[in-house]
Specification:
alpha/beta, Aspartate Aminotransferase, domain 2, 3-stranded antiparallel β-sheet, 38% helix
Chain lengths: 426, 426
């Protein structure tokens, strides 16, 4: 029998951030409520990968009624303004399924009218690019406005559709817009683009990985044919899990069941959906998403409170010399991207270089800044209590002031006291 | 704000099988040790979907060193006799990645010599079929021997290769064999087929979903280029999680990083691997697989003990009138398929029809028979203590005897006492 060195390390994995305040924008919308965590453990859902499969009768997790997966998917579809939903291996797998659908469409029934081109926003998530690459679509992007706002206008999409028409004589096979883009947290004009796509009769996907489950999202108002969702990013869920929501018009093609038969044995798998690998299993991520769903439905109604917190925090950060939010103002999402020259200056003189900032934050019980970056930082305060938000602000201010003094950088912090401090934060 | 009826149901999901003995063959190899479950909860790994991503520096989970994911994948590759491994969204996604690799190969550099055909065993898992369908491969199967053993011979693969050569002038693009097939638990002749594939220079995949992690598996002895593994099926792990293991020869093509650039913005995603959707996230399934790995490495060494248990149980079941194991003898895997005329007879007279058997078992604290089936049953005792194995046997015997008497069916059970009963099971 082979020996593997240091095997015991795997049995003792520690989570050093168990009690930290988490501010990583990919994480804050996915945090599982404590009560749900407790239930996952106590009900024994952490015992087994196939946790939803005990009473599976039809061979596909989305058809299971005990626990009520089928009902849940109907409710998810309704919650996001769609007609049908399937759970997927994350939002990336949902986007892949959309592109697969469009690939089949463009190569077959739509071949006269559509080209294998996707028009997408220039700050789309990388998974949109990977899904296009994996299915052989070419990406075309309208421009953004550049520094410091990086905004994308709906007109750019219309121009690109026209360009593609001119170049190929066909329409693009898909318009895919990221509802909120992952670089600056800008809310894209998904409704306006939707109207344009509808006018041209181009299928339209909105990637709501950063929004569906934290703020109100209704794909009907977007005029969208497809909505892709990340449960572990924005639905208080364990991962990997996502949802693909679509309308009746596209559901049949997207969730087309298997048509193949094997060779000699003549088997068929008529309940399975090839675009989502037959059956997407679900497992503990699905149980966690179901358990968190009442919480998610309730919290999106409190989005305005989150925006208030976000905007307060931006003002507080900008009281630090030279620190500036990038992206649109007023800001409409919890993903914040600051340029932070002061931390960049400190990093040049610090023995830990760019790593100093994330490490100083961790010392203060706050985790989630990308290690190594100090010139720009991305963070999110979604779901934090006011006390925690202030703790994050204080940490940044303290680090700036301490090192500024120590290194004689001459940076100044404007007085930050404001109504939230005075009123105890509420 | 929309209202969703009955939302509270999701917050109170109960696991009615929390304390049951589990005998579903897709589940028994995936059960997470209690100590690991405890740690998942206590270390806060159940708090967050992106649990492995806190210290991600390069943007791909498989490159993370804290926790030691990169090292773990090296160890997994070594453990299964391969050179490189990536984690995937389950074994189905691993098979898909193999077929994608072969699709690119067959359509490009191998286009002169290889056809878009996969030769697979006639009892392959449905996911092999779905992966072929999703990538446009045609499936070709050699026959099995039929009732009651359903065995597959290596020669059949050679014949099929020759047939394809004759028909197309090319070799098949892939030979894909299920190490142990999911219908009867037969161990396929993976080494012999591997030698044949090697002779013909046809790339060779072994799907070890039911074996890798429960019994010794070494892809080098199989002459395999690809090994696909299910963590939630056979590695004591939560799901969805799988592994794709390959050799240096194929690793570059299989794990080829993204080559695309987006349009206007000119972005590139050079660390991401399109065949596995860029980055396979990992999350709590990956943490659980890592935590269970020492246990898995240890337990495969005790496979002979499991076989002893399995064979004892088969003898005991066959003491029930007419009950017979299907599949090969001696049996070499924990997946057991019995034909059970006695239960079929009972079901015809029972008001719950075919459901009676699974329900009677559940009453006795044993879950995992497919609800509705009584003519044939599939089950597994993998990992159970002797006392539990006997409890399962007793349950079947009791149900048979009780109903046989009640319904005057005249079935008889041979005396079942044997050395294991007398010795207290050890």
């Amino acid at each position: 029998m082979m020996k593997i060195k240091g095997l015991q390390r795997y049995g003792q994995l520690k989570n050093p951030y168990r009690k930290a305040i988490i501010i990583n924008p990919i994480m804050t919308g996915g945090l599982v409520p404590e009560k749900v965590q407790q239930r996952l453990f106590e009900e024994g859902w952490t015992k087994i990968g196939y946790s939803v499969c005990f009473d599976c009768l039809e061979g596909r997790s989305s058809l299971i009624s005990k626990p009520p997966v089928r009902q849940f998917l109907n409710d998810v579809a309704e919650f996001f303004g769609g007609d049908r939903a399937e759970h997927t291996f994350g939002c990336r797998a949902a986007q892949f399924a959309v592109m697969k659908t469009m690939k089949n469409f463009v190569e077959n029934e739509g071949s006269k009218d559509y080209a294998k081109v996707v028009i997408t926003d220039p700050l789309c998530h990388y998974t949109t690019g990977i899904a296009a690459e994996a299915t052989g679509f070419r990406l075309v992007e309208p421009p953004h406005t550049g520094y410091p706002e990086y905004k994308v206008n709906a007109e750019g999409f219309q121009q690109k559709i026209e360009e593609i028409k001119k170049d190929t004589g066909k329409l693009p096979g898909l318009v895919a817009v990221t509802h909120v883009e992952p670089y600056y947290g800008n809310l894209n004009p998904v409704e306006e683009v939707g109207k344009i796509a509808e006018e041209y009769n181009v299928p339209y996907m909105v990637n709501a990985a950063y929004t569906a489950g934290v703020m109100p999202v209704d794909m009907r108002t977007f005029h969208a044919d497809f909505l892709t969702v990340s449960a572990h990013k924005s639905m208080a869920s364990l991962g990997p899990l996502g949802f693909l929501v679509t309308n009746y018009g596209w559901a049949k093609r997207t969730f087309q069941t298997s048509k193949m038969t094997t060779g000699w044995s003549g088997r068929a798998f008529g309940k399975k959906i090839p675009n989502i690998f037959g059956c997407s299993v679900g497992g503990i991520p699905l149980i966690s998403a179901m358990s968190s769903f009442p919480h998610v439905v309730e919290r999106v109604q409190r989005w305005e409170e989150e925006l208030e917190k976000i905007r307060w925090f931006i003002r507080q950060m900008e009281k630090l010399d030279d620190i500036m939010l990038l992206g649109e103002r007023p800001h409409k999402h919890h993903l914040l991207h600051f340029e932070t020259p002061i931390f960049w200056e400190i990093s040049k003189r610090h023995k830990r270089r760019g790593f100093f900032l994330a490490e100083e934050m961790i010392k203060r019980g706050i985790v989630g800044l990308h290690r190594g970056l100090s010139k720009h930082i991305k963070l999110s305060l979604y779901g934090l209590e006011w006390e925690e938000v202030k703790k994050v602000r204080d940490a940044f201010h303290e680090i700036a002031e301490d090192f500024s003094k120590k290194l004689n950088l001459g940076y100044a912090v404007t007085d930050v006291t404001d109504e939230h401090d005075e009123e105890g934060g509420e």
